[in-house]
């Protein structure tokens, strides 16, 4: 049996206590924001220390902490006034059920406009002030300065995207809608990515049979588009060199069926264990997981989804926005170039080297590709397909969060060639001219 409903007085007391708790938690998370600190792990430890937090409490406090991280600069200016601070925090937070429960504590200031486009105006902020919330060096890293609409997306709660791995889309949509119950949100099949489903906020994957049976996997919509930008589609034997927990590995394995295969490697063994679990759930037999870095074999394609600053995921992981320093980003660029150099040696003649990041910085993206090509005459840039309204006009494609309501990422493709043949071709063209 569930708990009996609280009377009005007890309910208000509980809500006011939640406000006090979140204020205390935000005081305590300041030490978790040191550069390179594992924020998610430390936050989970902090919650466990409390002992008394239930699932709804954790959802509420996590949402409000992440909201604080998104709007930190504005909120810090009023933190000395606890009531105003928490009022602003609640008004800026995504309207999930647990947050909406706190609206009675706001009095006549409870949000009436729940759209993210206008939420900052509830605390007296204007559109042009949005850029103040980003690190001061970040805007200079864009190739083209983002407009206000694009900047607003950085401070929205990222949606949960699923990818259909097998089975019928309508059957999966019906099951998700049944689990969502009586809410104002329904699962939506994307018009852009043919296998992408935007799931309702708070969907419990542990209760979703389609997830447990491997019919759907969690994968951001922008990530789903990445491999579909390759032209022609992947074939043969591929290496996923920075596989992580395997979202792209699984998608790549599906694309390579029935004759192709994927060898997956990652330096993080915990991530590979998660990949193995997902592989077994999906029932894919064309994925092999390597515990060690491949150093002899050659492949038809190598995917290097390189470790990066993660600026394209700041809406999903706002702590990264507060932890990242420009000098750290530049160090990532150096490591990315080293990874490309190493894994380029694993690409067979005529094969492809695909470079990807979840960064929006040109210093981690186009500049890395330019540096690589400038030092590897046996590779040339291969334009990506013109799909989804995207076009490779230089050294790859950057997908910004506002384009598909997903993460931001970059992808570029390079083909291994015989440099002597290219030189001969160039000399022939020169003679003809």
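-> sequence recovered:
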């Amino acid at each position: 049996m569930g708990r009996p409903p609280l009377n009005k007085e007890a309910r208000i007391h509980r809500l006011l206590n939640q406000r006090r708790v979140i204020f205390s938690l935000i005081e305590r998370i300041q030490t978790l924001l040191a550069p390179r600190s594992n924020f998610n792990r430390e936050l989970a430890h902090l919650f466990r220390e409390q002992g008394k937090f239930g699932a709804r409490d954790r959802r509420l406090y996590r949402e409000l902490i992440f909201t604080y991280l998104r709007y930190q600069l504005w909120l810090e200016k009023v933190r000395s006034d606890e009531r105003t601070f928490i009022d602003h925090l609640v008004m800026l937070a995504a309207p999930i059920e647990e947050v909406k429960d706190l609206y009675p504590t706001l009095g006549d200031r409870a949000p009436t406009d729940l759209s993210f486009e206008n939420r900052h105006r509830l605390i007296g902020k204007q559109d042009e002030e949005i850029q103040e919330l980003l690190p001061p060096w970040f805007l200079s890293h864009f190739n083209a300065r983002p407009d206000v609409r694009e900047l607003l997306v950085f401070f929205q709660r990222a949606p949960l995207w699923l990818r259909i791995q097998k089975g019928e889309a309508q059957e999966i949509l019906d099951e998700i809608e049944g689990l969502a119950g009586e809410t104002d949100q329904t699962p939506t099949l994307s018009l852009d990515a043919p296998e992408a489903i935007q799931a309702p906020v708070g969907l419990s994957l542990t209760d979703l049979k389609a997830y447990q049976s491997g019919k759907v996997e969690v994968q951001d919509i922008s990530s789903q588009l990445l491999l579909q930008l390759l032209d022609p589609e992947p074939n043969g034997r591929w290496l996923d060199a920075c596989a992580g927990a395997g979202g792209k590995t699984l998608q790549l394995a599906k694309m390579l069926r029935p004759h192709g295969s994927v060898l997956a490697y990652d330096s993080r063994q915990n991530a590979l264990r998660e990949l193995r679990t997902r592989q077994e759930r999906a029932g894919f037999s064309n994925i092999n997981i390597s515990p060690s870095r491949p150093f002899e074999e050659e492949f038809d394609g190598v995917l290097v989804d390189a470790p990066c600053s993660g600026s394209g995921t700041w809406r999903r992981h706002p702590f990264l926005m507060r932890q990242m320093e420009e000098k750290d980003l530049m160090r990532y660029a150096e490591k990315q170039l080293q990874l490309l150099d190493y894994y380029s040696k694993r690409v067979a003649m005529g094969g492809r080297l695909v470079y990807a990041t979840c960064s929006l910085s040109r210093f981690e993206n186009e500049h890395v590709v330019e540096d690589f090509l400038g030092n590897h005459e046996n590779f040339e840039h291969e334009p990506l397909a013109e799909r989804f309204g995207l076009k490779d006009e230089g050294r790859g494609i950057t997908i910004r969060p506002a384009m598909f309501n997903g993460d931001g990422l970059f992808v570029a493709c390079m083909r291994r060639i015989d440099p002597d043949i290219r030189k001969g071709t160039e000399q022939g063209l020169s003679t003809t001219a």
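The chain has three domains: 8-125, 160-218, 222-421.
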